[in-house]
């Protein structure tokens, strides 16, 4: 089974603190997606009814708040935003100290820091708009972009800086791009399913998209089926033609995550969308973004400079 594990590039020598921070940045970006899901699934989205303060006059929850325990869940998620920011800034400093000469590492981390700031503002807008489902969807999709960027950094930090060479033919690369685009479509449709379903983020004032959740769910499922077909096509193509086993093993993990997500999706649909399964589904969405990012990058190689 060891040969089936996902493959990352052979690591270039680097400072161990830098490598740790690259991985930690990815972990906390996935974690904040899950805590954001927990906020929504527990109806705690307005546990802190103002932003940036939790309640007027205080940045932290206070004892007399009417939001009960919901205030602690929402405040915990806001606090994790600070943790994510600190990790990203520490990563930027580490790259400046130990990898300043590496091509293209500083700018992506700077963009991630900017994305975190934008996320904080979008989160504040969603609170002021009483968890408008369209704004909440943008909040989630922006998180997926940050997860993608963080996964890319994990890969790129391990690569060399020599010119890239492709391990597969151009036609397979375009097929992989189509699978990536379909992944985005699946994520967008997933936000529509959530936006029209029972988990609005606020227990007392639910805000929903005015669309039929059953129709949206089946459209989302159809898109997943198309994604599955595209990934299978890429998997077969790289297995038959790739110069290296790296693409096949990484696209296999994309397939496994999609299958697991499909089982979770159908199970939660037929069980009435229980919150624990929805939270697992959100974690699976983050992992899907990570593995699709790595699978796309595995179609190339950038050897170490000697």
Automatic annotation (TrEMBL):
InterPro entries named in the record: COX15/CtaA_fam (IPR003780), COX15/CtaA_HemeA_synthase (IPR050450)
Protein name, UniProt field: Cytochrome c oxidase assembly protein subunit 15
Subcellular locations according to the entry: Membrane
Annotated keywords: Cell membrane, Disulfide bond, Heme biosynthesis, Iron, Membrane, Metal-binding, Oxidoreductase, Transmembrane, Transmembrane helix
Pfam families associated with the record: COX15-CtaA
Organism name: Branchiibius hedensis
PANTHER family, A to Z: HEME A SYNTHASE
Stretches that traverse the bilayer: 20-39, 79-98, 105-129, 135-155, 175-197, 217-238, 250-271, 277-297
Keyword Membrane: yes
Top-rank lineage group of the source organism: Bacteria
CC per GO annotation: membrane
Keyword Endoplasmic reticulum set for record: no
Membrane-topology annotation of the record: Multi-pass membrane protein
MF terms in GO: metal ion binding; oxidoreductase activity
Coiled-coil residues: none
Pathway annotation from the record: Porphyrin-containing compound metabolism
Single GO biological process annotation from the record: heme A biosynthetic process
């Amino acid at each position: 089974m060891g040969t089936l594990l996902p493959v990352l590039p052979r690591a270039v020598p680097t400072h161990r603190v830098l490598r740790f921070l690259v991985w930690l940045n990815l972990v906390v970006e996935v974690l904040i997606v899950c805590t954001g899901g927990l906020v929504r699934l527990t109806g705690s989205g307005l546990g802190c009814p103002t932003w940036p303060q939790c309640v007027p006059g205080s940045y932290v929850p206070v004892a007399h708040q009417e939001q009960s325990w919901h205030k602690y869940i929402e405040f915990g998620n806001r606090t994790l935003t600070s943790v994510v920011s600190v990790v990203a800034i520490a990563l930027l400093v580490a790259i400046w100290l130990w990898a300043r000469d590496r091509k293209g590492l500083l700018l992506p981390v700077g963009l991630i820091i900017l994305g975190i700031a934008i996320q904080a503002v979008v989160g504040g807008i969603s609170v002021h708009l009483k968890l408008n489902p369209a704004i909440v969807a943008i909040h989630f999709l922006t998180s997926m972009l940050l997860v993608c960027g963080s996964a890319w950094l994990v890969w790129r930090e391990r690569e060399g800086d020599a010119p890239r060479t492709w391990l597969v033919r151009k036609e397979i690369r375009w097929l992989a791009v189509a699978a990536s685009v379909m992944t985005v479509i699946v994520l967008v449709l997933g936000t529509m399913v959530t936006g029209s379903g029972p988990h609005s983020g606020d227990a007392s004032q639910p805000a929903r998209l005015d669309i039929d959740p059953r129709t949206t769910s089946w459209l989302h499922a159809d898109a997943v089926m198309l994604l599955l077909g595209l990934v299978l096509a890429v998997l077969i193509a790289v297995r038959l033609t790739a110069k290296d086993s790296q693409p096949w093993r990484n696209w296999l993990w994309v397939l496994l995550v999609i299958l697991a997500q499909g089982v979770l999706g159908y199970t939660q649909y037929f069980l009435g969308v229980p919150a624990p399964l929805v939270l697992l589904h959100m974690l699976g969405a983050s992992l899907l973004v990570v593995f699709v990012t790595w699978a796309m990058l595995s179609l190339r190689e950038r050897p170490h400079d000697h």
